[in-house]
Every structure is written in structure tokens, then in C-alpha cells.
Design a protein that fits this description.
By secondary structure, the protein is an alpha/beta fold. It has 14 helices and 20 strands. Strands 9-7-5-2-10-1-11-15-19-20 form a ten-stranded mixed sheet, sandwiched between helices. Strands 14, 16, 17 and 18 form a four-stranded mixed sheet that branches. Strands 3-4 form a two-stranded antiparallel sheet. Helix 3 packs across helix 4, helix 3 packs parallel to helix 6 and helix 6 crosses helix 7. The two termini are about 25 Å apart. Bound molecules: guanosine-5'-diphosphate, 6-O-phosphoryl inosine monophosphate (IMO) and magnesium ion (MG).
Length: about 450
């Protein structure tokens, strides 16, 4: 049974939640491997909309085992809220949610430090989600983080908390002139969270290993996107975790020899939230059209997303860094209204055209996009479920994009709901999951 990584190929919000939800019936386990409640993965089921932040998007399918891996940072209050909201809406969590003992906690001082750092960053402000995810990963790397397992050991938790409070209060007071925290103010609520979460906290790496040995199929759900990766993204305008396919191993404890493929998710255009370079960004009427038609407002912060044309240079890079076997292209329907559609095929910088994603920050900021321009199909693809049904120009656009990035397209999404999905015949997806074949093919 194949174990597949689903990874964002742009700057996040590509529609990973929808794609994971669509594929979940064909796997046994879905595991999140990085990020925290900075993520917002939207799944639309009929008229109901769910936004998942720390819980895998497989949770809406009864019988799917969902794991929060060690690479995720967990804000326990936010996780408990998310769990309660799901239960209230009739989603069962009993016996199908597992939280890694090694996952690090987001502590109340992390969002405070996140916001304080941002407020002093001036033009190098990242535009974080303010959830404290960066400072939590910084503590993990600095070896002062507190993990889920510590939450279950009151004495150790108190010891680590006391050390951190001394250190963080100094920072908050002397560097940021911000409010301080007390041990008691955190201890009480966190011990309550411990009681609540204890039944779910376990050795998830061991469980995953046993399940895989027993023949289970695991899907790894990435958060954010390739260009936000701490190593491979547009540093320093990134998130602080390994969003790329490699993170699926370190973030779960499943070795690379047990992973069989990677599916990259990309919109048919491109968006970015927060600061940082975005070579194919556009402004004006067409950007507004994409934002409105695509409802491009952050699912966590509500911020308007910056919009632009699809960036094939970035997608080729994502294909290389993640070893993508196939792409899922989402939100094709958003382009239905465009007179022309463009694909960014190169970055022009000081007379040179880069077709491989450069590694210099200056180039990302200053490069001019080089476009291929195509006339739009200007007819509705919204809700189409069969590749052959798509307008010829839409197919040509997808096929040209696939040719430039050098990777096939296995899924095309034409609307937010589950069924507005085309599985491309002969692609990686029906090969991995033969039971998918039935749903509208080329
Ligand atoms: P994620 O973070 O990668 O899971 O993506 P988000 O959920 O943050 O953002 C994707 C948004 O696009 C959500 O509101 C989805 O409901 C919506 N969406 C996903 N696929 C499609 C599609 O094919 N067409 C349209 N119109 N909306 C889509
Ligand atoms: P999903 O999983 C889009 C962005 C923030 C900011 C940068 C760093 O829904 O695709 P952070 O709070 O992580 O330190 O912020 O990363 N960012 C996202 N952008 N989708 C996300 O998640 C994001 N998570 C973080 O806007 O630019
Ligand atoms: Mg999102």
C-alpha cells in the first residue's frame, strides 16, 4: 500500500486540505508532519465548511486514523478548541486521533515573542500569523522547548517552565518592553490541558511503523508550502519548519525508504500571505478578480492574499526539491473569467533570465517575471468532473504548464467541494490508488 506525501508547491493555501480530504477514503492513516495552528486547511463537505489547523484533514472521514506527528508544534488550547468544535459538529475523535509525545508545545510566551519581534522588524517584517510558531521552533532548535511528553510529567514540566519563564521574561522586558508571564499563570491551564489531551498522546512513530508493517497506507499532509520551507524557501520570508517532502520523515519518524511518492499541490495561479518576494505578483483589476473569485482571504487571519500568475520557475523548483511524481492543480475555475492567462517561465535579473529558481534574496525581490501569455477559455469550468469536458484552451493551459514544469498533472480541482474534482486517467493517482479511477477521467 503506497505511502504518499501531499505537499504545497507554492507559498501555502494551495488547497491541500481539499485534496487530502478527497484522497483520504483511499488510505488508512493521515499524518500532519510540521507547522502548527498557523495553518488553515479548508474542507467543504456539501454546504458545511471546516477549517482545520492542527488536526489532519483526514479527520472528516470516519475510520481514518489521524496523527499529529513530532514535527508539528502544538498550541494545546487551540488544539482543544479545534477538537471540541469538531465533536460538536458530529465528527468522532475517539480512537482515531493520535498526538506525538515528541511534538513541541506552543507556550503563551511564544505568540507574545512572535508579535514583539514583528513589531520591531521594520521593513524586514515577515507578516507572520502571530501564532508563536517561529519562536516555538526556535526553542526546539535551542534545546529549551517543552514537549507533549513533558506535559504528562508535572515535575519536569514545572522545571522546564520555570527555566523558560526566567529566560523569556528577560527578553520580553529588556528587549521588547512587553508584558511578562508567571509560572503559576501558565502551570494551571497547562496541567488542565494535560488532563484533557493525555488519552491522545502516544509514541506515534512506533504506531506508524507498526501500521505500515501491517500493510496500512499512510498519507503525509504538509502544511504551508515549498517556498515557505525553512531551508528551501524564500528565506527569511518563510515559516520555521520543513514544509517540503523531506519533512515528512523527520516530522513523523517514518523513514524515507517507506515513502513511495509525492504529490505537489498548486493553484492554477499563485498567492502569498504576508511579506516577502513574489516575482509573479500582480496588482490592479486582474489581481482583484482573482482575489474575489478565489475568495483569497487567509483562513486563519482573514488577511487578503496577494495574487499573481502561476510561477512555473517556482513549480519546477518544487518538483525538484520534493521529487514530485505529479501535480494537483486547484482552483482552475477561478481563471474562467480571464481574457488572458499567463505562466511565469523565467525571472529576468540584470539582463540574465533564470529558469532555475535562484538562491539569492535580491533576485527574488528585483527580478522581472518573463511570461508566456495564452488567451483564456472564458467559459465555466466550475464543478467539472471529467477532463475531456474541460474547454480546449483550459486543457492546453494545463498541458503547457505540465510541460514546462516537467511533471504530469494527476488531479484538477474545479471547485471547493469534494466532488468538483477531476482525476486524470493514466496519472500517478489512479496508479497509487486504483479505487480512485472511477471519478471522471481523461
Ligand atoms: P490549504 O491551506 O492548502 O489547505 O488551502 P486553504 O484551505 O487555506 O485555501 C484554499 C481555498 O480554496 C479554500 O477556501 C478552499 O475551499 C478553496 N478551494 C480549494 N480548491 C478549490 C477549487 O478548485 N476551486 C475553488 N473555487 N476553490 C477551491
Ligand atoms: P497553510 O498550511 C499561507 C506564512 C505567513 C508568513 C510566514 C511566516 O494554510 O497553507 P508563521 O506564522 O508561520 O511564522 O508566518 O508564513 N504562512 C502561511 N501562508 N498558508 C499557510 O498555511 C501559512 N502558514 C504561515 O503568512 O508570511
Ligand atoms: Mg491555508
Amino acid at each position: 500500500m503506497p505511502n504518499i506525501v501531499v505537499v504545497g508547491a507554492q507559498w501555502g493555501d494551495e488547497g491541500k486540505g481539499k485534496v487530502v480530504d478527497v484522497l483520504t477514503p483511499h488510505v488508512d492513516v493521515v499524518v500532519r508532519y510540521q507547522g502548527g495552528n498557523n495553518a488553515g486547511h479548508t474542507v467543504v463537505v456539501g454546504k458545511e465548511k471546516f477549517v482545520l489547523q492542527s488536526i489532519p484533514s483526514g479527520i472528516l472521514h470516519r475510520g481514518c486514523r489521524c496523527v499529529i506527528g513530532c514535527g508539528v508544534v502544538i498550541n494545546p488550547a487551540s488544539l482543544i478548541d479545534e477538537m471540541e468544535a469538531l465533536v460538536q459538529r458530529g465528527v468522532s475523535l475517539d480512537g482515531n486521533l493520535y498526538i506525538s509525545k515528541n511534538a513541541h508545545l506552543v507556550m503563551p510566551y511564544h505568540p507574545a515573542l512572535d508579535r514583539a519581534a514583528e513589531s520591531q522588524a521594520g521593513k524586514r517584517r515577515i507578516g507572520t500569523t502571530g501564532k508563536g510558531v517561529g519562536p516555538a521552533y526556535a526553542d526546539k532548535a535551542a534545546r529549551v522547548g517543552i514537549r507533549m511528553a513533558d506535559l504528562l510529567d508535572e515535575q519536569l514540566f514545572r522545571e522546564k517552565l520555570e527555566f523558560n519563564i526566567r529566560q523569556k521574561n528577560r527578553l520580553l522586558r529588556e528587549i521588547y518592553d512587553a508584558e511578562e508571564f508567571t509560572v503559576e499563570g501558565i502551570l494551571g491551564p497547562y496541567l488542565r490541558y494535560a488532563g484533557w489531551l493525555a488519552p491522545y498522546i502516544t509514541d506515534t512513530a512506533l504506531l506508524l511503523s507498526r501500521w505500515i508493517d501491517g500493510g496500512a497506507s499512510v498519507m503525509f499532509e504538509g502544511a504551508q508550502g515549498t517556498l515557505l520551507d525553512v531551508d528551501h524557501g524564500t528565506y527569511p520570508f518563510i515559516t520555521s519548519s520543513s514544509t517540503t517532502a523531506g519533512g515528512a520523515c523527520t516530522g513523523t519518524g517514518v523513514p524515507p525508504t517507506k515513502i513511495h511518492g509525492a504529490l505537489g499541490i498548486s493553484k492554477a495561479y499563485c498567492t502569498r500571505v504576508g511579506g516577502g518576494p513574489f516575482p509573479s505578483e500582480i496588482s490592479g483589476e486582474i489581481a482583484d478578480l482573482l482575489r474575489t473569485r478565489g475568495n483569497e482571504f487567509g483562513s486563519v487571519t482573514g488577511r487578503p492574499r496577494r495574487c499573481g500568475w502561476v510561477d512555473a520557475v517556482g513549480l519546477r523548483y518544487a518538483a525538484r526539491i520534493n521529487g514530485l511524481d505529479a501535480f494537483a492543480i486547484t482552483k482552475l475555475d477561478v481563471l474562467d473569467a480571464c481574457e488572458t492567462v499567463k505562466i511565469c517561465v523565467g525571472y529576468r535579473y540584470r539582463g540574465e533570465v533564470f529558469t532555475e529558481f535562484p538562491e539569492e534574496e535580491r533576485i527574488w525581490h528585483e527580478a522581472e517575471p518573463v511570461y508566456e501569455e495564452w488567451s483564456g477559455w472564458q467559459s465555466a469550468t466550475h464543478g467539472m468532473r471529467d477532463y475531456a469536458e474541460l474547454p480546449t484552451k483550459a486543457r492546453e493551459y494545463l498541458e503547457r504548464l505540465s510541460e514546462i514544469v516537467g511533471v504530469g498533472i494527476a488531479l484538477v480541482s474545479t471547485g471547493p467541494v469534494r466532488d468538483d474534482t477531476i482525476i486524470v486517467a493514466g496519472s500517478a493517482l489512479p496508479r497509487w490508488f486504483p479505487s480512485l479511477g472511477a471519478s471522471g477521467a481523461q
